[in-house]
From TrEMBL:
<feature type="compositionally biased region" description="Basic and acidic residues">
    <location>
        <begin position="130"/>
        <end position="145"/>
    </location>
</feature>
<feature type="region of interest" description="Disordered">
    <location>
        <begin position="126"/>
        <end position="145"/>
    </location>
</feature>
<dbReference type="InterPro" id="IPR014747">
    <property type="entry name" value="Bac_photo_RC_H_C"/>
</dbReference>
<protein>
    <recommendedName>
        <fullName>PRC-barrel domain-containing protein</fullName>
    </recommendedName>
</protein>
<dbReference type="InterPro" id="IPR011033">
    <property type="entry name" value="PRC_barrel-like_sf"/>
</dbReference>
Length: 261
């Protein structure tokens, strides 16, 4: 099911032996638009402690009614996990240390959203020695190219259409099974009073991180005339089809797994 990413904000993170904190932010992969980590504030559990990362590999289920994310790890594992300075870009070295600590596979190996799997729930065990060496070498080559972005930080980026700015990013819509960020919600109230619309992340032409601009190959008139987003309703399959039809596009399911490889 598709859900607004903001709906996870402040959800409790429930380990197998108790709560460890609450969701404070999410980090997504700007190459494939997939949530790679939940940023968890552990202050209530460990006063004076740090924020930690929790991978969707750890998530055993999301309890939307009780507003908590269940994870299949212990409080002690979280307490002893590698320290990461979240005030700086998370490097591939940090990710490798983190994934090695929990025994999770490297998601950057393979051609799918989670390396060799379409979702973290069905990802295979860590790669063998030869593949592991290759992935580590790839990590070293990419270490200076941070690719994880804060959802909180990117919220507010302006949407640059072909003929001008037409709003800003207000939220993201993700698939709770694959953790793929499928759409972003655009607040157009400065141009279209009271209206929110959604655009598919696969339509993004470019993101200018320095200027906080998301470029899309669409016109302002096309965005103005697009179906309105109702945050109280889920994005159904028929609504998706209507959205794609409005822009004269079809969803290429295989496109996302190959992007930026």
């Amino acid at each position: 099911m598709l859900r607004p990413l903001s709906s996870l904000q402040k959800f409790a993170i429930r380990a197998v032996d108790g709560d460890i904190g609450a969701v404070a932010d999410c980090y997504f992969d700007d190459r494939q638009w997939v949530v790679r980590y939940l940023v968890v504030d552990t202050q209530r559990w460990l006063p004076g402690s740090r924020k930690v990362l929790i991978s969707p590999y750890s998530v055993s289920g999301i309890d939307w009614q009780n507003e908590c994310v269940n994870v299949s790890i212990t409080r002690e594992q979280v307490k002893s996990s590698p320290s990461i300075d979240l005030d700086k870009p998370v490097s591939r070295q940090h990710e490798t240390d983190f994934l090695d600590y929990y025994g999770y596979p490297y998601y950057w190996g393979g051609g799918m959203l989670w390396g060799v799997a379409a979702s973290p729930a069905i990802a295979r065990p860590p790669a063998g020695p030869e593949m592991e060496r290759e992935l580590r070498q790839r990590r070293e080559a990419e270490d200076a190219d941070p690719h994880l972005r804060s959802a909180d930080y990117v919220s507010g980026y302006n949407i640059q259409a072909r003929d001008g700015v037409i709003g800003h990013v207000d939220d993201f819509i993700f698939d709770e099974q694959s953790w793929e960020v499928r759409f972003f919600v655009i607040d157009t109230r400065n141009w279209l009073p009271g209206r929110h619309v959604v655009l598919a992340t696969e339509w993004i032409e470019e993101v200018n991180w320095e200027q906080s601009l998301v470029h899309v190959p669409l016109t302002r008139d096309a965005i103005r005339a697009s179906p309105e987003w109702d945050e109280d309703e889920s994005l159904s399959e028929s609504a998706e089809q209507s959205l794609y039809a409005h822009y004269g596009r079809t969803r290429d399911v295989g496109l996302r797994s190959q992007r930026h490889r």
